[in-house]
Amino acid sequence: MNNETHTPSSDFAKEIALIPGGEVINKCIQCGICTASCVVACVDDQYRPRRLIQKILIGKRDEVLKSDQPWLCMTCRMCEERCQEGVSPAEIFHAVRILAVKEGHIPKVFQITVEKVLCDGWMLADAYTDFNEDEREDLGLNPALAWNDTFTKKVKKKYLAGEESA
Amino acid sequence: MKEIMLYRGCTTPVRLPAYEAATIAVLGKLGVKVVEMDDANCCGAQYVESVSRMAFAAMSGRILALAEKESQDILALCGACSGSLKINKHFLDNDEKARKEVNELLSEEGLKYTGKTRVRHLLQVLNEDIGFEAIEKAIKKPYKGLKLAAHYGCHVTRPYEIVQVDDPENPTIIDRLIEIAGAEAVDYVGKTRCCGGPLLAMDESLATHIGQDKIRDAIAAGAQGMVTACVFCDIQLTQVQFGEDTDSSKMIPVIPIVQFLGPALGIKEDVLGIELNKTSPDIILSALQEAK
C-alpha cells in the first residue's frame, strides 16, 4: 500500500526519484495544495509548483532542466507541511537542481556564489570592511572572524571540480 | 553557568552584529554563557546545498565536528544556518556511508563527526533551556500598550520532523515572549509565510514584493513593530521598507527577539546595539515602563 503510486511516471520522474530527496515525486497526486500554499506563486503568475512537478511526471526533461523555475523555490516548506501525501516540492526541486548542474544548467548567481563560498570559506569576505570591524569592536565583539577556507577548497576539489565553471 | 557555542554564520557578524551582541548579553543575563566558534566555514545553505548533497553535508558536518571537539552544543541565530546544520545532522546520523565519507575528509585535520552535538536555534534556548518562567522572573521593565507581530522564519520552524522548534503552522514561542515582556502579540494574515529573502538572488523585485506584503499584513492587524528570530528575515523585512515606492510614514520597526527582550531585562541599549537599527525602534522603547 505504501509503495502505491497515483500518477504517471516518466523516465525523467524515475531519474529524479533516484536522487536523494527526489524519491517522494511518485507520491504526488497533483492536488495542487503546493501551488495554493506557495508565496512565490502569489506574486509570480508563471510559477506553479504543481505544474512543474507534473512536467517531471510526464517527462518534460529538457524543458525542466533548462528552466529557471526549479531555482525559484524558496524552500520555505509551507507546501510540504500541508501536503498530506508526504511530498516535498523543495526536495524534488533540489534533486532537479543537482541534475541540472551536472548537465551544465546553473543560474549565474548560484554559480558565482558557490565559487565564492568554496574559495573564501564563507559568503561575505568581500563585504567585510574596516567599518564592520570597528562596528564589532564598539559592540564588544571580536573583529577577527577567523574563517577557514582550507576545508572548503578541499570540498570543492572532491565534489565540485569543474562543475561550477559549466 | 551553562555554556553554548555560537556558530555566527556568514551574515550576522557583517550585516547585523548587534544581533550577535544582544544575544550574548541576553543569554548571559539569563544564565547561559555564549562562547564563540572560531575557524569555522559557511554551512553551505541554499547555494552549495543546491549543487551537491555531499558537499553540503561536508560543510555543515565540519561545523558540527568543531563543536563536538569542544563538547559543546551549537547555538544558531540564522534560520538558514540552524536549518542546514539540523538537516545535515539528520542526514549524517541516518546515512552511514555519507558519515564515513565526511569523516574521511575531517580526519585530515583531526576532527570527527559522531552526532553528539545538538543544534539549538535561539528560540529553543529561550524556550527549552532557559524557560518562560525564568524569563518572566527576570523582566525588570515591562513594556505596556505595545502591539507586536511575530515573524518566525521558515527555516527556523520547518521541516518540523527535523528542526523541532515550534508548531510549524501555528508557532507561539515569539508570541509568548512578546507577552511575557508585557507587550501584546497580534495575529496577522500570513504569519507563517516567508519573508522573501531566499528569492533575492533569483528575482529581487519578487522577493521585495513578498516582504512588503508581509509588512502590510502585520500593519493591517494593528502591529506597531515586528519581532524576528533570523538574521536573514530581519534584514529582508527591514530593507523592503526602504524601497522607492514605499511610504516612510508606514514604516514599522523590525527587531530581533533579543534586542526586544534586552531592555525589559534591564540591559543597556548600547550593549544591545539598538541605536544601529535601520528602522527606528523609538515606538518600542518608549513603551518601556519604569522598573517594577
Mind explaining what this structure looks like?
- The complex is a heterodimer of chains A (166) and B (292).
- Chain A folds into two domains: 11-102, no CATH class; 108-161, no CATH class.
- Chain A is 50% helix and 0% strand.
- Chain A has ten helices and no strands.
- Chain A has helices at residues 11-17, 33-37, 39-43, 49-57, 61-66, 78-82, 89-102, 108-120, 130-138, 150-159.
- In chain A, α8 (108-120) packs across α10.
- The model of chain A has no long low-confidence stretch (mean pLDDT 93).
- Chain B is α/β, with parallel strands linked by helices and 292 residues long.
- In chain B, the strands form two sheets. A four-stranded parallel beta sheet of chain B has the order 2-1-3-4, with helices on both faces.
- The two termini of chain B are 26 Å apart.
- Chain B is built from 16 helices and eight strands.
- The longest helix of chain B has 17 residues, at 53-69.
- Chain B folds into two domains: 2-121, Glutathione S-transferase Yfyf (Class Pi), Chain A, domain 2 (Up-down Bundle), CATH 1.20.1050; 136-285, Rossmann fold (3-Layer(aba) Sandwich), CATH 3.40.50.11810.
- In chain B, β7 (226-228), α13 (231-239) and β8 (254-256) form a beta-alpha-beta unit.
- At the A-B interface, α3, α6, α7, α8 and α9 of A face α1, α2, α3, α4 and α12 of B.
Tag the structure with descriptive keywords.
heterodimer, A: 166 residues, 10 helices, 0% strand, elongated, B: 292 residues, alpha/beta, Rossmann fold, 2 domains, four-stranded parallel β-sheet, 8 strands, 48% helix, globular
